[in-house]
Every structure is written in structure tokens, then in C-alpha cells.
Amino acid sequence: MAGSKLFGPSNMSLLLQNDSLPSSEVLESLWVHTSNPLSFQGSKTIVDFENVGSGSRVVTDIPFFQQLEKEENCGDEEYEACFHQQGKKRRLSSEQVQFLERSFEVENKLEPDRKVQLAKDLGLQPRQVAIWFQNRRARFKTKQLEKDYGTLKASFDRLKDDYDNLVQENDKLKDEVNFLKKKVIPLDKENSEEKSSQEAINKEPMDLTSNENSENGSKVSFPNMVLKCKQEDANSAKSDVLDSDSPHCNDVNNLSSFMEPTTDSSHVFEPDHSDFSQDEEDNDNLNDNLLTLPKIEDVCYDDPRDNSCNFGFAVEDQTFCFWPYSI
DNA sequence: AGATACCGCGTGTTTACCTCA
DNA sequence: CATGAGGTAAACACGCGGTAT
């Protein structure tokens, strides 16, 4: 009998502790006389403990008691040692595995009664059944993890594709915006040049220092211009602050926007640094004049009394309203 | 209520066996 | 046919939590 590392004294004691080994009579009855549900067609597919290490291990049509009879050197006290020392590691038969698999499908946990019954039915030790279920659960978990990983990976790939498509679409739209901007800016310049030249023509004969030059209403005094500008902007500022590049009322526009705080105007200067924040450089030319305007939220409206002081207040004063809780 | 022993399970590892190049 | 590598399954070791005493 070749010694086995597997079933050394410590392991043997463990085996004896955990699962009492069946007597030879019980084993014989299990293997020979039992009405085995696996229906081995009368033959007993068992492990050939004798031939372990010398080739084929599983033999059929050999009653278990005949195998035991070969262990003539084993007395009762030595039976268990002989049983294990020769056993080494043996694979379960396909029938046993199939039966265990069916049992596992029904319930992957193993109650003590069921374990004993399965061991009886299969001619195995209860500990073997327990170990098989443990290993089977581990294999199942591994498979499940692989499956879950596959599912998650597929989901991730789908999301990534969506994201990439969105990025592409975003880039496309940005290009479109830039293209349109380049088309619009020259037009604005043309318009502004036209207007300024026209204005220069209109202003030339007018004495801006005097209100008395107005005749037939054809000449407009400066204060009236301011008023007109205010009125126009009061109507348009809410939705079109961007028109502030109108050549004749830059600074005045500031006043109008101060005087007419609107909720709409606030969003125009909203410091949105989201997707289009990177376009700020491109927008610099277009928005230079806008950036000089005070942000509408810079103005504190909490105290109505302050509104009257909003004209030309110092910038540093705004910080109080803008960062009310700053330390 | 805390201590102890026992048991089953999960997880990682070892070992034996099988397959295949 | 022999052999070594890699894969797989059986068995083990250890720790942990639950339960009974």
C-alpha cells in the first residue's frame, strides 16, 4: 500500500471527527444490495482503489465487497486507514455526478437529512456529498460571475457607443456653430460700419453741446438720444441684450440693463462652463463688449433701497451681494 | 449575558487525474 | 509509446457566523 499524503494522521482524524465512516456491512449493503436510484443496470460503477496509480481507476461490474475482500491485510481497526490510504483521490462516476447535478438543480443547499440520503443513494460518504455540493456551489458562482461580467460588459459597451455617438454629434454641432458664427460676424461688422458712417454723417452738422439747435425735430439732442436709447433697450434688453453692440449706445446700455433688471437677462451672462465653455475663446471677439457689462446677478436686489444706488456703484461693493457668506 | 463547542458554509489552496500536443 | 503542460474535479485548510448548551 502506497502511503498517501492526503490521508495522513491529521486528515484521518478530521475525517473521523466529521463523518463517521460506515461499517463494512453498511458499505456492502449500499453497493450491493441497495435498490440504487441511479439504476446502474445491475453493475456497480465503483472506484477501483486497488489499481489507483496503475492506469484505469474506474472499473465496473465489480461488487464492492469483492474489492473489500482484496484488503485481506486490513483488520477492523485498520479498515478505515486502508480504505483511505488506497483511495487517494478518485473521481465520481458519471452516474453519481448526474444524480448530484439533478439534486443540485432542485436545491443547491444541502440539509443534513438530504445529505445522508444522497450519500446512501450514491454509495458515497456524507462528507463526499457535502464537499461535492460545496465545490459545485463554487463552480456555479464562478460561472455566474462570468455571466454577470459578460452582461455588464455588454451594457458598458452599449453605453460607450452611445457616449461616443453623442460626442461626435456634439463636435458636429460645435463645428456648425463656429461656421455660422464666422458667417455672422462679418455681417455685423458691415452693419456697424454702415451705421457708424451714417451716424457720423448725421452727427456732423449737429452741435451736441446745445439743445437749442433742434429744429423741426430733425435734430435730436443728446439727452433725447439717451432717452430713446433707454426706451429701446428697455424693450429689447430682456430678450436681446446681445444687441448691445449697437454702435450708438454702448455705455447707455449698461444703464438700461441696470435699471431694468430682468430674469431673462440673467441667463445671458450666466457663467455656464459646461459643454460650450471651451468655446469661450472663440466667442471672445463676439462677446468682448458683453463681458464689460456687469452681470445682472451682481446687482443685489434684496434691499430695494439699494436699487437706487446701482448706478455706477463700485465693483468691490458687489462682492457683498455676490458672496453673501464669504469669509 | 457571556463563554464555549459544534456545525455548515465560503473561499482559497493542494492534490490527483485526464487530455492533448 | 512516453512525456510534460494545462485543465478540472475532489479534497482539504482556515476563518466566520449561527446556534445550542
From TrEMBL:
A biological process (GO) annotation for this entry? positive regulation of DNA-templated transcription
Please give an example of a GO cellular component term from this record: nucleus
Annotated region Disordered: the residues are: 189-220
Q: Name one Pfam family in it.
A: HALZ
> Where does the Homeobox domain lie?
83-143
Molecular function GO terms recorded: DNA-binding transcription factor activity, RNA polymerase II-specific; transcription cis-regulatory region binding
Q: Does the keyword Nucleus apply?
A: yes
InterPro entries in the record: HD, HDZip_class_I_plant, Homeobox_CS, Homeodomain-like_sf, HTH_motif, Leu_zip_homeo
Establish whether keyword Membrane is in the entry: no
Keyword annotations from UniProtKB, A to Z: Coiled coil, DNA-binding, Homeobox, Nucleus, Transcription, Transcription regulation
Q: Which PANTHER family does this entry report, sorted A to Z?
A: HOMEOBOX-LEUCINE ZIPPER PROTEIN (PTHR24326:SF495)
Q: Which protein family is named in the record?
A: Belongs to the HD-ZIP homeobox family. Class I subfamily.
From the Swiss-Prot or TrEMBL record, give the protein name: Homeobox-leucine zipper protein
Q: Which organism is it from?
A: Vicia faba (Broad bean)
> What is the organism lineage in this UniProt record?
Eukaryota, Viridiplantae, Streptophyta, Embryophyta, Tracheophyta
